[in-house]
Every structure is written in C-alpha cells, then in structure tokens.
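Model: You mentioned two targets. I'll fold them one after the other.
Researcher: Yes, keep them separate.
Model: Target one:
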Amino acid sequence: MKVDMLGWQVSNLELSQKLKELGVKQESLFCYDWYREGKEEGVFGGQVLSKRYTPDAVSAFSVAELGQLIGTKAPLPRLMGDGFWEVGFYIQDEGSDSIVAKTEADCRAKLLIYLIEKNYIKMEAK
C-alpha cells in the first residue's frame, strides 16, 4: 500500500493484523479492507484503507485510538533526529528496552503489542 498522509496516521496492515490476532476490539474510524478488481466475483486486488467494514476488515488504528488503548501504561513515543519514532522504557527485573518505527502510529502499535504479549494490558473477550 502506498503511504499517503492517512497512512502515516494509522497502524500499518501487518501490525493491525497482529493486534486483531491478540484480541484488540476492531473498533476504529478506518480499516483495511479488500477491494475487488473488475466485476468478477472473488477477484481481489489487495488491501486498502476504508471506512466500510466487512467481516474480513482489520482495524487501522489511529495515533489517538492507540493512545486510548495504551492509556497511561507506558511513556509516549518521541520523534528522533533520524526521522524515526522511538519509545524507551524500563521494566523492573527485565531492564530497559525500546521500540522504534517509521511512524508514530506504528510505534504505538508495536508498543501495544508488546504490552499485551507481556500481560501488562489485557484485552477483553470479543
């Protein structure tokens, strides 16, 4: 998918799919959805950002939506001099760690994945 201004504001497809697998509720303003090419049934062209949800859609969480999901569980990402976003943190008995991504949304998505996988945030049942 070509990254346009909206693409910089929402989590990428790969991270969005991982969040869905981890049980994050699929409630967001935008989603990734399949689009059809031509009129033939079942011919798919790929994933596009959309506001139209179908059963196969995957939430494309915005920076703000990810911030709400993370809450106050971790520090905020910051823009580094090299143009990448980073969030650094310290966890008792584990030491320090950091997450780096090309966009703030992807940095927050990676952070949320980390927090869920380490059981710092629990997702409600779907």
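Model: Target two:
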Amino acid sequence: MFVVVWEFTVDPAHRADFDRAYGTDGDWARLFRRCAGYVATELLYDAEQPERCLTLDYWRLPDHYVAGMARIAADYQALDARCAALTLSERSLGNFVSE
C-alpha cells in the first residue's frame, strides 16, 4: 500500500466545509476515485489540538498515484485552489509504503 500524508491546520470558521472536502467521502476522495488504484482517504484529527489534522490517501501502488495525479492534474489544481481558504496551513508529510 502507498500512502500520501498531509498535515493541515483547519480554520475553525471553516471546519464543516473542510470536513466535507477532505473527509472519507469528500470532494478529494471523489476526485481520486476517478483514478485506477485509489483505495481510500482517511481524515484524522489531533486529540490535543483539534484544529490540526492529517489526511491519509491510500493507493495500491506508487505508480497508480503518479498516473492518477497526471490524469486529474487540472481538476486537482482547481479543487486545491477552492479549498485553500479552509485552512490556515498545510504541508506534505511525505509518501509512505506499508509492507
């Protein structure tokens, strides 16, 4: 399994919108479902800092992720721009492989 992990600080004023966009059945998951090899998205909130969260996007293989991102690049950029106002910060924590 290949996992792409992002960390976000959610703007409290936009928490519900963020959950709708980044949750398991949110806008991002629906976009990724158009790609072969996409498995699921998980949204985790920090128990001690409720504005901090992680998204984990699961793909079968790294090649699926690379091909999928190339296929949806324009739609990805548009959704990313639309969601920018929902967060105070975001950063990639990396891409991980489970054995």
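Researcher: Noted. Anything on target two?
Model: Residues 2-97 form a domain with the Alpha-Beta Plaits fold (CATH 3.30.70.100).
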